[in-house]
From TrEMBL:
Signal peptide: 1-26
Name of the molecule in the record: Uncharacterized protein
Protein's organism: Aspergillus oryzae (strain 3.042) (Yellow koji mold)
Keywords assigned: Signal
PANTHER family the record matches: ECP2 EFFECTOR PROTEIN DOMAIN-CONTAINING PROTEIN-RELATED (PTHR35605)
Length: 184
């Protein structure tokens, strides 16, 4: 992805019962949920069945050496906020994420408080994953292996993390700050 370009906006096809048919909404998972709730205020997302994607399935997708912590001087994300995004992707999001042809086609799947989780497709064709849980598991591994504790401005400590994990089948996950556009 060129350094001066922004990643494309994600779009999801979801079924909202008030519409009686699938509708197209765009944005991060959090933005999509807010859009749906503006249509149907009592909307609750379906909790996905976590039996299809496990940590073991993640381990077969990547090599230990494929994880890079703090590449290219990236800004760190707040670890606590990243964990919220991880849990959301692992447990609360149904469906199969699809990303257009790459290489370097990245889309932000979680973003809050200037912290982001991205997934990128490095294949020359579109890539569909089995579940958002796969992205969440990779982001969790980045958090677990790339975290550090730093002195915060309020004299306390904060947990920080940033990293990128590459999968054998040519896709990757990025965890970092979201203050600027994604520059690889």
């Amino acid at each position: 992805m060129p350094e001066d370009s922004l990643p494309s906006m994600w779009s999801y096809t979801i079924t909202v019962l008030v519409l009686w048919n699938p509708g197209l909404v765009a944005g991060t998972i959090e933005e999509v949920t807010n859009q749906v709730r503006s249509i149907k205020s009592n909307y609750k997302y379906e909790r996905r069945d976590g039996t299809n994607a496990s940590t073991a399935s993640l381990e077969k997708h990547y090599d230990e050496e494929s994880l890079v912590c703090y590449p290219n001087g990236w800004g760190a994300a707040d670890g606590n906020t990243v964990q919220e995004g991880v849990e959301y992707l692992k447990n609360d999001v149904a469906g199969k994420p699809t990303n257009g042809p790459g290489p370097g086609n990245c889309g932000r799947v979680s973003c809050s408080y200037n912290n982001a989780i991205w997934w990128c497709n490095d294949n020359t064709e579109s890539k569909t994953l089995d579940s958002f849980r796969e992205i969440g598991l990779a982001a969790e591994e980045i958090y677990n292996r790339c975290w550090m504790s730093a002195v915060a401005s309020n004299s306390g400590f904060e947990n920080l993390c940033a990293g990128q994990m590459f999968m054998k089948d040519k896709w990757n996950v990025i965890v970092r700050d979201a203050k600027l556009s994604l520059q690889l």
